[in-house]
Amino acid sequence: MTDFTITEDFPKIEIEFDKRFSKPKTCYDYLFKQKWPNGFICKKCGHTKYWVSTRNLYICTQCEYNHSLIASTIMDSIKKPITYWFKAMWWFTTRKSGINAVNLKELLGFGSYGTAWCWLQKLRRCTIRQDREKLSGRVEVNEFFIGGQKSGKRGRGASGKTIVAIAVER
To answer: What distance lies between CA 38 and its chain's CA centroid?
Structure first.
């Protein structure tokens, strides 16, 4: 996966975000600045001149090597407009209570729950740091059950409930 680091002031409210990233061109321009902050440089020959294809590939004018802004990212081989991905990432990172596949499906107008679920899995996977260190020092641990109210046994061993464990380093 290609790492992108936000190096500028990013919109803090949704209205600002919508103004800035409502068109595919602005999304690609943002990714371009993240990938090449000092301007385009061909990774094959080092040339600095390019042209953009209708498929948003940046093609070196010297060696004609194709550069994609979304290759090796979670957006690789997308079928939906890039603005949908930007909006999904906005909701994923800014909602305090998180977002689930049903919400994402409704918010983006997807016809398929599976598409929304797949997108969220990709987003969740990319939030895990590969070289993360184990928790150390003072660690607090808690557990709880998810599954709504049902008659029958309560707490541990209740049928239809899923246990969730969480740990945090203080």
So the answer is: 24
